[in-house]
Amino acid sequence: MISSSTFHVITTELTVGMFALSGVAFLLCLIRKGPISRESVAHWALLGGLIATPFAIISGINSTPSEGITDPLLANKVLLSMTSTGIAIGVLINRKLGADVDVKHSSLGLLSVGLMLATAGIGGEYSRGETLLFLVPKETVFLFPLWASIMIAVLGIIMISKSAIQHRV
Amino acid sequence: MRFNLIIISVLLILSSTISTANPGGKGDDVRSRDCAGSCHSAPSTNGQSSAILALEFPGQVYAGLLFDMTSSVGNVEVSSNNMVGYNILINSDGAKDLPSNDGWEIITDPNGGKNNYVEIVDSFSSFNTVNRTWTLRAPSSVGTYQMYLAVQHGTPEGEVSMTGISSAFSVEVIEVPEDLPRLSPDWQPPNSRQIGESTTIKLETLFAETVSVELKNGGQITNLQVTNGEFTIPASVNEGVVEWRVIMEGEGPTQTSPWFRLTASAPGWEIDETNLYIQATALLLLCLGLVLSFRTPTVSYLKEYSDNPLSQQSDSNGPPIPAGGIPEGWTEEQWAYYGQEHLDSLEGGTNQ
Predict the structure, then answer these.
(1) Which of chain A's residues have a Cβ under 8 Å away from the Cβ of B276?
(2) Does the structure show a pLDDT above 60 at B297?
């Protein structure tokens, strides 16, 4: 068997690799250059990255030497990765429902990729003390009060529901 | 264009160094040498460290009892972060080399943990020797054992990672005299505490009639009162290490335990994890809702969408087919979807 640390390396490389590939393809979609397969590549790679993400998160938690979240970097990783996941799922659903791969759609895809790569950058800062992303928040975590989080969640659910109803109509 | 890309790619590959992985260290852990070496790429690509390495043991090491071991590293130039990884091993094979394989137990490593690999930051140089103390429990079987000290570190130039391993140091583990006053084999000292907390420790001893405890704080040694095998180390106001030891008297020869180290540290960073996970879920839902609301209103032809992106505009003929026909290798369906983009790019190229 392999340790959770090794499994985490495998899953993070899968996740980051898939997202990076998706990012390149979305960039080509944005500038409308490159092979015609760029749209399929962008979305399938994004889906692959999304599938690998939960494994990366779970193995990451298991491989952390300390118990629980004991560093602001880890808290920011959780927030950034979930934000990225939300955007990525939205981009994929939009595409499945037939959205055109226009500037708006491609930009959202790129935003999702950027957030996930920032999450990976924070991982580098946490484990090795170095990252290319010099602006990653190292000591600050924007934590809302519980009532605000619940309101945001309710707002999100309303928006999702409204979107689903519009789609049916 | 393609040639330029190849040249740039080759230059980028050639500009990379052989191995500077994990320049900030990998963190203390229980690691074999092979694993420790792989943190700086493959061991075969490492440089040979010039460090002079040594392990020092007390005169008598009793089976199953605690003792202090001193590791020293000298004559070494390291990277700007002044960090060296110390690895205590039982062989130099890179496999089955953990001290626990021979029955050794690391009670306190130099950083206050229980690991055989620790990363030490100190004034390493060719003129300085850095000593660190480990508290170990000897194997329960008597015999002659071997111990190694391996190191890994960077270089001032930061190009190649360096590794080194000492020659074998033999240590003779002898039988414990029957009536030797000693600490119980199951007893373990605490290694850490938080600032502002006093620490009450209960000792478990064998064959000891009187027990006293000495506390060393800075250079000063004070005696602590022991009542029913319990004593209290006063709270620390700053981060740091206090050392203490037990002196046990009985029918056998008087025994003094190794200096145990108790590290005081500030309370760790904490967060309400439930709140964090709820907020993370809320952000996921909000972002999902926002992105879905950004979707271009669905029109009838989009409902016929399939996995093939070309099918989205299957009812559109695209731009007029030029006199020379559609480009070679293109289908009419591709022309319908990408034709305008192709014409735009041709127009752009012509303008240039």
Answers:
(1) 69, 75, 78-79, 141, 143
(2) no
Q: Which CATH number fits domain A4-136: 1.10.10, 2.60.40, 1.20.1260, 1.20.120?
A: 1.20.120
Judged by a CB distance cut-off of 8 A, whether residue A153 touches chain B is yes
**Count, residues in chain A:** 169
**Model-wide pTM > 0.90:** no
**Which tokens in the block code for residue A39?**
């749209």
Q: Which of A46-50, B183-187, B196-200, B346-350 comes out lowest in average pLDDT?
A: B346-350
The predicted structure's pLDDT at residue B305: 46
Rounded to whole angstroms, how far apart are CA atoms B320 and B333?
13
One domain for residues B31 and B59? yes
Which of B174, B209, B229 is where one domain is finished?
B174
Tell me the mean pLDDT in the region A46-61.
88
Cα–Cα distance, B338 to B352 (Å, whole number): 21
- pLDDT > 60? residue B92: yes
Q: Is residue B224 part of a domain?
A: yes
Q: Which residue has the higher pLDDT, B43 or B2?
A: B2
Query: Looking at the complex, does the CB of residue B24 fall below 8 Å from at least one CB of chain A?
Result: yes
Token pair 């493959």 is found at B42
Same domain, B229 and B165: no
- Clarify whether residues B82 and B196 are in a common domain: no
Please check whether residue B278 touches A, CB under 8 A: yes
Q: At which residue do the structure tokens 């519009």 appear?
A: A166
